[in-house]
Amino acid sequence: MSHQFTPKYLFALIVPLIFESLLNMMIGMADTIMVANCGEAAVSAVSLVDSISILLIQLFTAFSTGGAVIVSQYLGKSDKANATLSVRNLIYISLSIALALSVVMLIFKDAVINIVFGSIEKDVRSYTDDYFVPILISYPALAFFESLTAISRSEGKTSRTMVAAILMNAINILGNALLIYVFGMGPQGAGIASLTSRVIGCLFMFLLMHRKCEELSIIGITKGPVSPSMIKRILRIAIPAGIESTVFHIGKIIVQSLIATLGTASIAINAVVANFNSYSNIPGNGINLALITIVGQCRGKDNFKDIRYYTRLLMLIVYISTLIITIPLYILSPEVIHLYGLEDATATLALPIARGCLIACLIIWPFAFTLPDTLKATGDVKFIMLTSLISMWIFRVALSYLLVKVFGLGVEAIWYSMYADWTVRGMLYLIRYKSGKWKEMNVI
């Protein structure tokens, strides 16, 4: 039987995205590992700031995802004019929101830290202030970069986004080495390195897409046109996705504040385990990006048969690739965790939590995070939003507080609650997918 995409196209699309996922993850990992020589307080500060930063980054990602779905469906219909129009309006929305957020957060930075984390140890707070400012300044460049890479992925041009990720990682790691180890700037140096890498990555993608030979060229981007109808289409995807990711990460921040009450060692354990286990999600995150492009283009042609075919195929690939990564990670986890600079007692507590998460990532994660991208690419974003929010507040937040405050468990309770959240939402997404309700969604 013939399908919409050839195996060669799928390989060329997916492999660079997996490497890109690895490289994107390494930016945060490099900051965490390379500030480890400054002590657990520095690791904890980077973790706390990242918990806020990820919230805002997810908002940018929601808008780029909304644009990617629209662009993919128009490309599937071979409607280049509307695909180009959606590209420009995606950029206008993303940049406007990022600039506004950066200004507001810079003005109210101290209030945000106090409200979110309350009373934290003095040395952790000092490092938090140092790291937060350059990260906030980097948001407009990051939002622009996210929009441009989402557009390129919609076109299937994933090799360039991989090259951009390589460039950003090289700059980030070299910057960290120089500013942290040579100039002794600690978390502030890590923040400046991240800012520099994001600006250069943005410029790289801009120069590539600001060419006449580009199918969706952004030449004349400052001249418009601004299309209210196209913005509305993008927002129909972006707003539910943005609400989902924003409220979801607000819940994570609330849980983070609970972890902060358990002490610096618990904050460091949570940060290290989260960073360590992100390795196992590398192939899944890359394949998820490919799934949006593939399903979006199939939906543009009303090719429902191939939507089901590619969803099953890519879910299978996620499971196989995750298993390949999980086995050596499980075996080598003691050695890898010690690279983060934890004290011996803290590393001993982190090890069983890290191994438990590896198992959960292998079994549960694909249903909770890969399957919904099929629904998202067809426009079924409201169901994803409602499912995610209800499950998150009941299981990840409420259950965490119950296990810690009532039953007296430690940081491991946070992870048990997260697995419950993944399980429930994964089951609900599977039921929705099997029902076929997503076929009724129209976004263009």
Topology of this structure?
Elements: H1 7-34, H2 40-76, H3 80-107, H4 109-117, H5 122-137, H6 139-155, H7 158-182, H8 186-209, H9 228-260, H10 264-277, H11 282-300, H12 304-338, H13 344-363, H14 365-378, H15 381-406, H16 412-435
Helix pairs in contact: 1-2, 1-7, 1-10, 1-11, 2-3, 2-5, 2-6, 2-9, 2-10, 2-11, 3-6, 5-8, 6-8, 7-8, 9-15, 10-13, 11-12, 11-14, 12-13, 12-14, 14-16, 15-16
Can you characterise this structure?
- The protein is mainly alpha-helical and 444 residues long.
- Helices cover 83% and strands 0% of the residues.
- The longest helix has 37 residues, at 40-76.
- The chain has helices at residues 7-34, 40-76, 80-107, 109-117, 122-137, 139-155, 158-182, 186-209, 228-260, 264-277, 282-300, 304-338, 344-363, 365-378, 381-406, 412-435.
- The chain has one domain (7-440).
Question: What's the order of the H and E elements?
Answer: HHHHHHHHHHHHHHHH
Residue share in β-strands: under 5%
Global morphology: globular
Q: How many domain regions?
A: 1
Count the DSSP helices. 16
Show unreliable segments: none
Distance between the termini: 28 Å
Brief summary:
This protein is an all-alpha fold and 444 residues long. The protein is built from 16 helices and no strands.
Which descriptors apply to this entry?
mainly alpha; 83% helix; 444 residues
